[in-house]
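REVIEWER CHECKLIST
Item 1: Sequence provided? yes
Item 2: Single chain? yes
Item 3: Sequence as submitted:
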Amino acid sequence: MHLEPMQYYISLLFITLFGCKLNYKNANTDNGHEATILITKKENCIYSERKGRAQLLKQQFTEDPNQLNEAIITSYLTDSLISCWYGTQWNFYGTTQIPGNGSIACGYFVTTVLQDAGIKLNRVKLAQCASEEMIKKLTIKNSIFRFRNQSLLAFAETIKQQEKGLYIIGLDFHTGFIYHTGDELYFIHASYAEPKVVRKEKVSESGVLAASKYKIIGKVNFNTN
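Item 4: Structure as written out by the authors:
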């Protein structure tokens, strides 16, 4: 049984209003600028329920891969599933699958979120390989872009011209998600920069992005099986 589109929107509105409560803290980025980092109170996130809901939405998209269903699964992932991870500690060797319990490395963060959303993948193998290989495996082929020695502004302007949605980005020694809302670009990642937690920040304010000379990005392929 599938819900009608209006029911999806009502469900998403309910989650937005009554889901994880968020607060903000400021931290210095690697380039010396102060960035606003989004942190969640994880006790309000029942992750198993959100994971189950994400997988139902993924199935809905697989059965009917239209723009509306893609927008619904993307919004749910970024606003409800990933938000449970904010504040989880980063560690180079972190492999936790439970938000707020233990630590997680950047590659494991990406693969764990996508696996929990119902995308079939080898969580460990892809987390440990080069981010370029992960991106080739998990994103839409014609959505992949590479940038070398370009400014953060030039990078952002190019991505803003692409379709809205959720992207995977690989850097010199790091990986994460780029969320293109249409109005803003956000970098969501398990960050090695202080305060060393899973965080969401504007692309324009990210010292980690600015410091990387190489960037590769591709849009998540929700039809990956």
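Item 5: Key structural point noted by reviewer: Residues 5-219 form one domain.
Item 6: Recommendation: ____
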